[in-house]
Amino acid sequence: MESSTLVPVSQFSFLPPKPHNRTRIKRRNFFTTIQCNKMYVPGFGEASPEAKAAKHLHNFFTYIAVRIVNAQLESYNREAHAELMEFLERHSLNDGNKFCADLMRESPRHKTLALRILEVRSAYCKNDFEWDNLKRLASKMVDDHNTRLMRDYVLEVSHEES
Amino acid sequence: MESSTLVPVSQFSFLPPKPHNRTRIKRRNFFTTIQCNKMYVPGFGEASPEAKAAKHLHNFFTYIAVRIVNAQLESYNREAHAELMEFLERHSLNDGNKFCADLMRESPRHKTLALRILEVRSAYCKNDFEWDNLKRLASKMVDDHNTRLMRDYVLEVSHEES
Fold first, then answer.
1. Could you give the domains of chain A?
2. What phi, psi does B26 have (nearest 5°)?
3. Contact at CB, A93 and B9, closer than 8 angstroms
4. What is the pLDDT of residues A70-90, one digit of tens each?
5. H or E element: which one contains A132?
6. Residue B48's closest CA among A72, A119, A134, A8?
7. Cα dihedral A97→A110→A73→A98 (10° resolution)
8. pLDDT (tens digit, 9 = 90+) per residue, B67-108?
9. What is the per-residue pLDDT across A98-114, written as a single tens digit (0 to 9) for each?
10. How much of chain B, in percent, has pLDDT values that exceed 90?
11. Out of B17, B60, B114, closest to residue A9 by CB
12. How far is residue A79's CA from residue A112's CA, in Å, rounded to a whole number?
């Protein structure tokens, strides 16, 4: 697996959060608090952690779509492949939408490529990406890392004490 | 929503990918290719896009757990809240596991905080995070952005022509 990251979260602010709207609704002329068993997650304002994660998966899907289209072109359209590679050298994929918008405006041939990328990212998100597997892997990862962190700490402390 | 990003993908390499193992298995003494309807995604080697996304969601969950614990401490343990805030100023949350490992070793009081964060990130991932909602939001986002990108392009071109 490569070294790049989906989650540089250091820029997140720990300033006082806006009120969270998940657990409260306005009903008639007074506020009623609905009891919610979920933990209160501050700092996402009107959005939600799910919306934030979706936004970034959206960029990830654009990146995947570019890789898929690029691999397809390599087999059957070397010229278009070279054009896409050249465009990739000049444009960042950090913002998937901006990348597609720029690609669309580069030339009529690039526009065709951009439309193909839009189509592929939609198909990938809806049909190919294994959402259940994502949940399973993420849960397993949390368990494995929690166990490892605690085990390493205990080993370190017991080593120091002996 | 805040400005930070989950997906800086510019570092991804477009070098020739390793062979993808999803569609091929070795059976007896010869290779048999299993037909798979999924699109070929190059460049993830032995891992998968799901594993890559899970890895980064894992860091996202650590960030969320830190926010949750921090908000809880603000209400009932001002001293621990101040200690966590001070630690946050000195340590990056980019690598969730490293953050927890460092927090654990800072002092016995910090260790208690770290264990609480590990517990919360596990509970959040398994019980609170709305996985179905993530899928729904991501699919909707792809559709909305694809439509908007094409509409903007058509409007721009028709404006130029008129």
1. 48-127 (1.10.1200.210)
2. -90, 125
3. yes
4. 999 998 899 999 999 999 999
5. helix A131-161
6. A134
7. -10
8. 999 999 998 899 999 999 999 999 999 999 999 999 999 999
9. 999 999 999 999 999 99
10. 66
11. B60
12. 13
Residue (of A96, A13, A18, A4) closest to B4 by Cα position: A13
Residues of B in contact with A71 (CB under 8 A): 17, 40-42
Give the tokens for residue A138.
């993420």
Cβ-contact A96, A61 below 8 angstroms: yes
Paired sense of beta strands B30-33 and A24-27, if any: unpaired
* Closest alpha carbon to B50 in A51, A60, A143: A60
Q: What CA dihedral angle connects A113, A117, A120 and A121, to 10 degrees?
A: 180
The distance of Cα B77 from the centroid of its chain, to the nearest Å, equals: 30
- A135: its two tokens: 């949940």
Six token digits for residue B124: 């959040």
Structure tokens at A27: 């009903």
Q: Which ranges constitute the DSSP H helices of chain B?
A: 49-76, 78-90, 96-106, 108-123, 131-161
Stretches where chain A sits below pLDDT 70 are 1-35
The DSSP code for A18 is: P
Residue B160's pLDDT band (boundaries 50, 70, 90)?
confident
Residue carrying the six token digits 């080993």: A155
Structural tokens at position A6? 């989906």
Q: Nearest by CB to A55, which of B126, B133, B141?
A: B141
